[in-house]
Automatic annotation (TrEMBL):
Residues 16-179 form the Luciferase-like domain. Gene3D superfamilies: Luciferase-like domain. This is LLM class flavin-dependent oxidoreductase. Keywords: Oxidoreductase. It comes from Streptomyces phyllanthi. One of its GO terms (molecular function) is oxidoreductase activity, acting on paired donors, with incorporation or reduction of molecular oxygen.
Length: 325
């Protein structure tokens, strides 16, 4: 089956309208990033999006068990499913930037696995045992919520433990291509979340307009430091040196402030055409299509495009045209 085109959003108040546009452009799903310290609430924005759309899949990527009780997530999922029947997916992960921005650490993968198992059971109308207590969803017909509900549950996987959990309990995985070109170790549906911008004729990677369009997502390549696609570059070394000069307790927050949605002054110091070229999937439409072909060969069945900058509709349309070349 050919790779599908989806999108993920750094959730803002404008996201419901962007999801409407994505549906018109043929994107198969639109998922909202969840990071309470920097993004608008994804459940609220998806509820609004459900009123503006009829076909596009809707989801949260990713739910972090440390932030919400599993019954809370089950209730939100059940509610959104009533608003958009057959269109809802939930992705669960251990958390990184979202937890770091609130001064915490990610959840263990054992906890993620238990969370997925319990979430599926609650949505199925079953009782679960949690923290020594038995519980279930108790929605009556007067609430408008009907159980049981079958919702695909994916796992955000970025390493052996995560892919192991996904293989046991997930309906799909969402990952990214910045960890190398090896075959994705998952047999089911795999979505690759990535970003970039389509160059207009005559544009170069270091043009100011290009930097502004793709900057918030390109900066992630700097944030990954020596473990990312810019490892060893002048830009990565400079950024990493500045981060390491900070007190240890401030480094994660300083690194991920504005994650995928805005640029910090530190980002701008090291963000240039080299970062755009080597840290994103940007280029001419033909170059982007070639990059997508390589990702599909590695095992991706869905490409989840994350647009950035001040003109999200432009990015969605340009990338969709490149995808369908």
């Amino acid at each position: 089956m050919a790779m599908e085109l989806a999108c993920t959003f750094s959730t803002s108040i404008a996201t419901p309208e962007h999801i409407r546009i994505a549906e018109e452009l043929g994107y198969v799903s639109a998922w909202c990033h969840y990071s309470p310290a920097i993004y608008a609430d994804p459940w609220m924005m998806l509820a609004l999006a459900s009123e503006r759309t009829t076909r596009i899949g809707l989801g949260v990527a990713v739910v972090v068990p440390r932030f919400r009780h599993v019954a809370d997530v089950a209730g939100c999922t059940a509610t959104l499913t009533q608003l958009a029947p057959g269109r809802v997916t939930v992705a669960v992960g251990s958390g990184f930037s979202s937890t770091a921005l609130l001064g915490g650490r990610g959840t263990t993968w054992a906890s993620v696995e238990a969370f997925v198992t319990n979430l599926r059971a609650l949505l199925g109308g079953e009782r679960i045992e949690l923290d020594g207590r038995s519980m279930s969803l108790l929605h009556s017909k007067e609430s408008g919520i009907s159980l049981p509900i079958e919702v695909p549950i994916w796992v955000a996987a970025h390493g052996p433990k995560a892919f192991g959990v996904a293989s046991r309990v997930a309906d799909g995985v969402i990952t990214n291509p910045t960890h190398g070109n090896e075959k994705i170790p998952f047999e089911g549906t795999c979505g690759l979340s990535y970003y970039g911008t389509v160059l207009d004729p005559g544009e170069a990677f270091d043009d100011p307009a290009v930097i502004e369009r793709v900057g918030p997502t390109a900066a992630l390549a700097l944030h990954m430091g020596p473990y990312g696609p810019l490892s060893g570059s002048v830009e990565e070394k400079g950024f990493t040196e500045q981060i390491n000069a900070l007190p240890e307790e401030d480094r994660l927050v300083a690194t991920h402030r504005g994650h995928l949605i805005s640029l910090t002054d530190l980002d701008r110091r090291f963000l240039n055409g080299n970062v755009v070229r080597d840290g994103t999937l940007s280029g001419t439409p033909a170059e982007i299509r070639a990059g997508l072909d390589a990702l599909e060969e590695a095992g991706a069945s869905r490409f989840c495009y994350t647009p950035a900058g001040s003109d999200i509709p432009r990015e969605l349309e340009a990338f969709a045209k490149a995808f369908h070349l």
